[in-house]
Design brief:
The complex is a heterodimer of chains A (252) and B (255). Chain A is of the alpha+beta class. Chain A has helices spanning 75-78, 107-112, 170-203; strands at residues 6-7, 28-31, 46-53, 80-87, 100-103, 128-136, 139-143. Chain B has 10 helices and no strands. Classes of the chains: A alpha+beta (252), B mainly alpha (255). Chain A: InterPro entries: Uroplakin-3 (IPR024831).
Chain lengths: 252, 255
């Protein structure tokens, strides 16, 4: 019987640094398992990533050899697959290893149906659990623990965006109210002036002058004249109704 | 009376001065509105798509400005000649212009208020890269957005995560694994290619543009709307005072 694979305490996880594309709708990123397999790996071994649906991780069985590795195309039925086959030397402490692994970045292999380990995009939001598996010539040699469930992003329809603003800004209210009141004042003033002028022109017979100010008759040194008769129909009370000049009212 | 003559002359002088200011402001309003209508920032396709014609206020402003200029000249002549008929015509035409300018101000202010980020976000998601070859306005829309993102080094309305949080017309033709967000969101080199495509797809800081374009859109739109609304409001306040003075002057003139 092949020796059972060693269980390493390492837990795969998302990269700690701030990356906007850490988790998208069909891909996710993992921190590379640096130094994890040192001491267990030979030069010819390979590190695989096993990806399974979170509820299928318990039933996942490590493949006996490279030929038994579940392929990407089987994911919908087998509920798991293995991918990202990398030489173990790439993750050793002495080598500069890739800091971040992206699961699901290869769209070409999905379409072409190649039989090589395919790192195709994930078909559903998951959640998924992953673990690293060190495979030697005679089968699995070491494995890490399963990761926490990774849930991919779900996009919503833009129809849920409500573009209507909740309330108008105070600026609009200020402008509208002040302008409306100005307009009302102007309209009232025009109507008032026109009305006053109409009533005034009904009272006046003839004054004969066309200048703005020459309306006072009282500064000439002439003998007092007989009082002028009041035109019928014009009561001139209250004072100032027939004239709009600020001078004291002369008799009609 | 000498004193009344002085008062009349002072009032005439004030009214002439008031009309000169109105005339100059009218020219300034026309110039400003022509500038806005000429689409200096290339944002008009975006605004047109929101079915919210903020340009209407600018168009009204152009004609109101010219009307104010013409009426101010009429007003100056009418005040100097102290002719009741001319002044009455002036007052009535000014009131009509006042009403139009009021409409323009309130339109500009209201439309500006309705241009929230959500409006642009929804439009962008529904129309950017929408593949309808027969529809020219969508191509123009896409080109405007591409220009906007290139020139301002921004992505989406609020950020690249707009493309992740919502489905879009872009997502229908570009798969998520290769295009978490459009290529224009990546930092590009001199040839227009992404400096690091993997870095851009992963969202590594420095290889993609992380700000949203809303600030780049709302800046010019705000200037446009407030330029029309508040400048128009200021002109109207001044015009109100001049009109009151003119009416007082008119009512004092006898035939």
């Amino acid at each position: 019987l092949p020796a059972p694979s060693a269980r390493l305490p390492y837990v795969p996880h998302l990269p700690p640094m701030a990356l906007l594309g850490k988790v998208t709708a069909t891909t996710f990123a993992l921190e590379g398992p640096r130094c994890v397999f040192d001491g267990h790996a030979d030069a010819s071994d390979a590190v695989w990533l096993a990806v399974a649906f979170a509820n299928a991780s318990a039933t996942f069985r490590n493949p006996r050899s490279r030929a038994d590795v579940p392929r990407y195309k089987q994911l919908p039925t087998a509920r798991s697959y293995m991918t990202l086959e990398t030489a173990a030397a790439a993750y050793s402490c002495s080598a500069p290893s890739p800091p971040v692994l992206r699961v699901g970045s290869d769209t070409a292999c999905r379409d072409q149906g190649r039989q090589d380990p395919c790192n195709g995009p994930l078909p559903s939001p998951g959640p998924y659990r992953v673990k690293f598996l060190l495979m030697g010539c005679r089968g699995p040699k070491a494995e890490t623990r399963w990761s926490e469930p990774i849930l991919l992003r779900r996009a919503v329809s833009p129809g849920t965006i409500d573009p209507v603003p909740t309330r108008h800004g105070s600026d609009v209210v200020v402008i509208a109210s002040i302008l409306a009141s100005l307009g009302a004042v102007l309209a009232t003033a025009v109507l008032g002036a026109l009305g006053a002028k109409l009533r005034g022109s009904l009272c006046h017979q003839d004054l004969g002058t066309d200048a703005f100010t020459r309306r006072s008759y009282r500064t000439h040194h002439i003998p007092p004249a007989l009082p002028q008769p009041v035109p019928p129909g014009c009561r001139c009370s209250p004072p100032g109704l027939c004239r709009s000049s600020p001078q004291p009212p002369a008799p009609c | 009376m000498a004193k009344s003559d002085d008062c009349v002359h002072i009032l005439q002088g004030l009214l002439v001065f008031g009309n000169v200011v109105i005339g100059m402001c009218g020219i300034a309003l026309t110039a400003e509105c022509i500038y806005f209508v000429s689409n200096p920032h290339g944002l008009y396709p975006l605004l047109k798509a929101t079915e919210n014609d903020i340009n209407a206020a600018a168009w009204i402003g152009i004609f109101v400005g010219l009307a104010l200029f013409a009426l101010s000249i009429l007003g100056i002549i009418a005040v100097i000649k102290a002719s009741r008929t001319l002044l009455l015509v002036y007052i009535i035409l000014m009131l009509i212009t006042f009403a139009f300018e009021m409409a323009s101000c309130i339109t500009a202010a209201t439309h500006r208020d309705s241009l929230t980020p959500s409006v642009f976000l929804k439009q962008m998601l529904e129309r950017y890269q929408k593949s309808e070859p027969a529809n020219n306005s969508n191509n123009e829309f896409t080109k405007t957005w591409d220009e906007l993102m290139l020139q301002n080094h921004c992505c989406g309305v609020l950020g690249p995560s707009d493309w992740q949080e919502y489905t879009s017309a872009f997502r229908l033709t570009h798969n998520d694994a290769d295009y978490p967000w459009p290529r224009k969101c990546c930092v590009l080199d001199a040839q227009g290619l992404p400096v690091s495509l993997d870095g851009c797809k992963l969202g590594v800081p420095g290889y993609y543009n992380s700000n949203g374009c809303y600030d780049a859109i709302s800046g010019p739109v705000n200037t446009h709307a407030w330029g029309v609304a508040w400048f128009g409001f200021a002109i109207l306040c001044w015009t109100f005072c001049v009109l009151l003075g003119t009416m007082f002057y008119w009512s004092g003139i006898e035939y």
